[in-house]
């Protein structure tokens, strides 16, 4: 595997290898010296055309912990804001000797275009493209699920996961459905009809419009942010109505089985899709998701750029 563009690109063995490698790399963060020499001399470019905090910093920290040189490229304030094309930006990065490009772009398919165009020779990692996919988020979510609910070293067979909220605009939901199914989990999507994608019936998952009916039978629930910035119309009557019908509060959380956990890819809209009490409860694992994201992204770069196992 040379690129990571979609969760659909990963076989079960690929995904388990990444998760197992991430588990080994996570142990590095417990050391007093957190760096490995694995990617010394390699250059990783964070090419972000959309705003990001967690994902960009996570990739930057992951690359630095592997001793790579990191270049952070934000579209705002760069030549892109002056009209430079993706092609010319890519050619510039290639001339600078980029070994890997981590790209977040507002257009679905931009990472695939970058990887197949021949503009750059290095690896391309999709850090989110439009409303299409976000594969490393799905990997860190799977890592977190396995850490809490399954024995290490295997897949997620037998788990049932609910993904609740703005499915229509969520690249996280798409990647999670694909990856969790590959790893053997069952997925049920929950949202108002207006926030379900066209053709969702063909996705490898169940669909429900009633969160209260779904919660008692799941091992984990992932709440999604309503992406108002991508909405060009009214998809529900009001924020209050959405919260009442699909928000996760303490009363709804009590319907979950005792072992079930709550996830959220962030950023959270406290008081809308998730209440503050739930977000701060022991069953919420959002802080762990962030920490696991560094380990998983280290594993992805390590495997794509040819790291050696004995260096862990």
List the helices and strands and how they pair.
Blueprint: H1 12-26, E1 43-48, H2 54-65, E2 69-74, H3 86-95, E3 100-105, H4 110-116, E4 123-129, H5 135-149, E5 160-164, H6 171-182, E6 186-190, E7 206-208, H7 211-214, E8 220-223, H8 239-246, H9 250-253, E9 261-263, H10 276-279, H11 286-304
Parallel strand pairs: 1-2, 1-3, 3-4, 5-6, 5-8, 6-7, 8-9
Could you characterize what this model shows?
It is a single chain. The chain has 312 residues and is α/β, with parallel strands linked by helices. It has two domains: 7-134 and 290-311, Rossmann fold (3-Layer(aba) Sandwich); 135-289, 3-Layer(aba) Sandwich (Rossmann fold), CATH 3.40.50. The protein is built from eleven helices and nine strands. The protein has helices at 12-26, 54-65, 86-95, 110-116, 135-149, 171-182, 211-214, 239-246, 250-253, 276-279, 286-304, and strands at residues 43-48, 69-74, 100-105, 123-129, 160-164, 186-190, 206-208, 220-223, 261-263. The protein has a five-stranded parallel sheet with strand order 7-6-5-8-9. It has a four-stranded parallel sheet with strand order 2-1-3-4, with helices on both faces. The radius of gyration is 19 Å and the shape is globular. The protein starts with 11 loop residues before the first helix and ends in an 8-residue tail after the last helix.
